[in-house]
Amino acid sequence: MPSRKYADGEVVMGRWPGSVLYYEVQVTSYDDVAHLYTVKYKDGTELALKESDIRSQSSFKHRKSQSSSSSPSRRSSSRSRSRSRSPGRPAKGRRRSASQSREHKDDKKKTIQETSLALVVVVLFKPSENNTKRYNGEPESTEKNDTSCVILEQKLKPDLEVKRVLEQYSLRSRKDDKKKEEIYSEKKTLVAVKPIEKVPTKTKELEFGGRIGTFMLLFLLPATVCYLLLMCKQDDPSLLNVPPLPALESLWEGRVFGVFLLWFFLQAVFYLLPIGKVVEGLPLSNGRKLQYRINGFYAFIFTAAAIGALLYFQFELHYLYDHFMQFAVSAAVFSLALSIYLYIRSLKAPEEELAPGGNSGYFIYDFFTGHELNPRIGNFDLKYFCELRPGLIGWVVINLAMLLAEMKIHNLSVPSLSMILVNGFQLLYVVDALWNEEAVLTTMDITHDGFGFMLAFGDLVWVPFVYSLQAFYLVGHPTTITWPVAAAITVLNCVGYYIFRSANSQKNNFRRNPADPKLANLKFIPTATGKGLLVTGWWGFVRHPNYLGDIIMALAWSLPCGFNHILPYFYVIYFICLLVHREARDEHHCKQKYGLAWERYCQRVPYRIFPYIY
Ligand code: NDP
Fold first, then answer.
1. Compositional bias of type Low complexity: which residue ranges (predicted)?
2. Strands (DSSP E) along 42-168, which ranges?
3. Does the chain have fewer CB atoms within 10 Å around its N or its C terminus?
């Protein structure tokens, strides 16, 4: 029976279950019946490890000195030293069979890989004397924002749920370990200092209610838009006052569709203008980074100039109001056609270019969620373009049309205070999004979701036609608010905006440059992917502070419409549902990405969106 080799309190290197990586751990106890050491990782995780999965720190340091040599013989000598600690090692001098020696060679190769991987981790974690001194066994492994990252082959790491890992790990036999390692070493990708994202595989966990849910959403989303717009046109838009169905022919007009196409292609021309800086997106699964031109704000300025010119030449912008439903139908038809095109082209896309969330193999599901991650025609990125241009800029143009329609219909020389607030708040939101266009590159829409019906319809129909509901409502249902009420609503909007903007900027800057001196006061939990999770600042307040700010603003947009009907509150109600669902999706992805580090983060920051509530 092997005697215990490592003492309680000793700092050693422990293998991370299911991987070939070693991290600094502290031995806390030893179970001499099961022959398992309980060790504590720097992030506070406690696991039971076999002795064969623990190595002394000196063995790593020793190898580090040798790693500069590329000589395999030298490496293998280092290997033999390390193996001498393994209970599985054959006795010295014992003759090996051919297969045994092959196995041994493979084993050697594998361990060399292990060692070099571990070295990278060790070097980047700076676990030597300094760190050893710093190690205090506290679960809170937050680090000041001054360290670089750890790395590993993300794609090999399964969902790290502590219990599962513990169970698997304690029960797995050495033989199973070996098999698994062999598989790992075959699949192994070289670790790099930069984080490596997951290589897309088949989407197993279906969201949005799976195939049935997405099939229903294909009809439900357009029906909801129709319903809301019809309701808004009614004198009494109470929920129980269901509007009559419009005649089909009244929904379509070729000229309106022509105007919509003109709008779309005008925005495409603005997008293609060679002005504005070109930036790189986050690394894709293959490590490549796409380039994006940041000129959304210029597009907005050009659009404003074009609209100004139209108004100067007496173009009746309330044409939009008069044909609002037809515009919505045109946009819906266009987004459907675009989604069909996107799906067909995605069938020819290489596997690595498919979206992690839209590759289930089920037609409806992939069609809805988007099969291809970044569909491009040459350099023209269709998803990125639709995300912020035609729909978002279209939203403020629609709002302006509503403002003019209100003045015309009600014979006003100036718009109502409610209309000014709604227009002003939403203009700020859109201008902010375009001014901070680069930030969209780190959002889920760009990094995770494919481009399919969900985003095409969302960007081109839902955003411009549903988000402008308050302004549309105010045209038909004038609401008077007093100046103090207007001031209070403005303060609310400013608070929401402040939270939203500072939270998004904090995370975006941290993701772009974790070493940014402006962020030096923030603490973060290091994760195995190399990215950190902020635990102070806004992201230490709740887990999605940007959603909180967004929801506060959504409320401020509805309040100017008064309390006569719930219809103008549709946006804030829907938005809470959307963000709660989105938060759950994001949470799920983060748990998969960051495993235990995410769990630690959740412990540190228990509330998701609303402090002390949710
Ligand atoms: P977020 O900008 O909230 O990004 C979530 C990602 O942030 C996570 O996946 C993770 O990605 C990273 N992250 C999470 N926690 C931390 C942390 N503690 N420290 C550092 N990084 C962390 O996601 P969205 O794309 O959903 O939202 C972007 C903005 O768009 C929000 O303000 C939202 O309100 C708004 N929005 C607006 C909508 C609208 O219709 N008006 C619709 C949807 C969103 P990783 O670690 O991989 O970087």
1. 66-75
2. 46-50, 54-55, 143-144
3. N
| Maximal C-alpha separation, the chain | 102
Per-residue pLDDT tens for 428-440? Answer: 999 999 999 988 8
Distant-in-sequence, close-in-space partners of 436: CB < 8 Å, separation ≥ 6: 501, 504, 505, 508
User: In 3-state terms, what secondary structure has residue 428?
Assistant: helix
Distance between CA 320 and CA 359 in Å, rounded? 38
Fold adopted by 10-57:
SH3 type barrels. (2.30.30)
Kindly report, residue by residue over 557-589, the tens digit of the pLDDT: 999 999 988 999 999 999 999 899 989 988 888
Provide the CB-side half-sphere exposure for 209 (13 A, CA).
8
Q: Which two structure tokens, joined as six digits, stand for 542?
A: 């709740």
Handedness of CA 58, 594, 444, 436 (dihedral sign): negative
Backbone dihedral region for residue 126 (phi beyond 0: left; psi -120 to 50: alpha; all else: beta): left
Alpha carbons 529 and 285: distance in angstroms, whole number: 13
Q: With CA atoms as reference, report the closest residue to 177 among 50, 22, 76.
A: 50
User: How does pLDDT run across 438-460, given as a tens digit for each residue?
Assistant: 888 888 889 888 999 999 999 99
The length of the chain, given as a count of residues: 614
Q: Which atom of ligand 1 is least distant from the CA of 550?
A: 34
Question: Are 252 and 331 in contact, with CB atoms under 8 Å apart?
Answer: no
Name the residue ranges covered by the structural domains of the chain: 10-57, 207-479, 481-613
**Helices 545-558/570-594 angle, 10° precision:** 170
Q: Which residues contact 40 (CB under 8 A, 6 or more apart)?
A: 25, 26, 28, 46, 137
Give the up-direction half-sphere exposure of residue 382: CA atoms within 13 A in the CB hemisphere.
Answer: 23
d(C-alpha 290, C-alpha 102), whole Å: 43
Contact 50, 35 (CB under 8 A): yes
From the alpha carbon of 444, which atom of ligand 1 is closest? Answer: 25
Q: Which residues are 267's β-sheet partners?
A: none
Residue type, 473: Y
CB 567 within 8 A of CB 228: yes
- Centre of ligand 1 to C-alpha 289, Å, is 20
Q: For ligand 1, is residue 546 a contact (CB within 6 Å)?
A: yes
Give percent of the chain with pLDDT exceeding 90.
44
Mean pLDDT of 495-502: 95
Question: Which residues are 124's β-sheet partners?
Answer: none
Find all residues with CB under 8 Å of 342, minimum gap 6, and list them. Answer: 370, 371, 372, 375, 382, 451, 452, 456
Q: What is the C-alpha separation between 48 and 171, in angstroms, rounded?
A: 10
* Ligand 1, pocket-test mutation among 547, 599, 610, most atoms within 8 A of CB: 547
